[in-house]
Amino acid sequence: MSTPTTHPVQLDLPGQTHVADGPHDQAGMYVMHHAFRRDLARFEAAVRQTPLGDRATWKALAGRWAAFTEVLHHHHRVEDESIWPLVLGHARERGDAESVETLEAMEAEHDTIDPALAACTEGFASMVDHPCADHRNALDVRITDLRAGLLDHLRHEETGALPLIQVLLSAEEFDSCEKAAGKAYPLRRIPFILPWAMAGLPEEVVTRFLGGAAPQLKHMLRLLRPRFERGEAQAFRHA
Predict the structure, then answer these.
(1) Is 180 contained in some domain?
(2) Residue limits of the Hemerythrin-like domain (predicted)?
(3) Is residue 64 part of a domain?
(4) Residue 17 reports pLDDT greater than 70
(5) For residue range 56-94, what is the model confidence (pLDDT) as tens digits?
(6) Which of 140, 152, 142 lies closest to 117, judged by CA?
(7) Distances from the Cα of 237 to the Cα of 58, 112, 189, 214, angstroms
(8) Contact call for residues 67 and 234 (beta carbons, < 8 A)
(9) Is residue 34 part of a domain?
(10) What is the CATH number of the domain that holds 92?
């Protein structure tokens, strides 16, 4: 008599559109998606509510935006280089046209997000150099469009692509993807990324996410959180 396979309990975070059940724990992906959704909502509110004359806050927002875009670029790069090609290869071997179409769409959607990010970067720079209602209105349109596009992409990824990881990747292949993701971010950004990824999550989720981490990482989070939160309070003080 065979023993039933027990899958890990997947995270189901606010804003998440689907939980992909299966043998691989995709907590890392869901935590990143939660952070992207959280940030875009805050940026949208900050752009609309920050007074034009508050130059210090606009400068803080521009710096915070730069950190957000850098993390998102690295996240998409590891997907395009280390995850989707591997899953796509298996889908093609199976002759699964629908899955191939879904996976090819992931990279195509990344290509539409990049220019939208660049447009917002220009918009924040304009608000630092010459804050005015016209520049704010233009940035508002850009950030709103970007948020809508990225939310659609995350929904598509969660409902279409992440379930394919559960079906098509072996344990060894999934582990290689996780290692590639762990190496994707510059070391200089770790003091930002660690508290950034954990921000807004229930403490039980933080504890679970860091459960297998070295004690030094948990200690680092405790040390980094106050500085990160001070930066958040400055950038999003009006949001």
Answers:
(1) yes
(2) 31-165
(3) yes
(4) yes
(5) 999 999 999 999 999 999 999 999 999 999 999 999 999
(6) 142
(7) 10, 30, 23, 34
(8) no
(9) yes
(10) 1.20.120.520
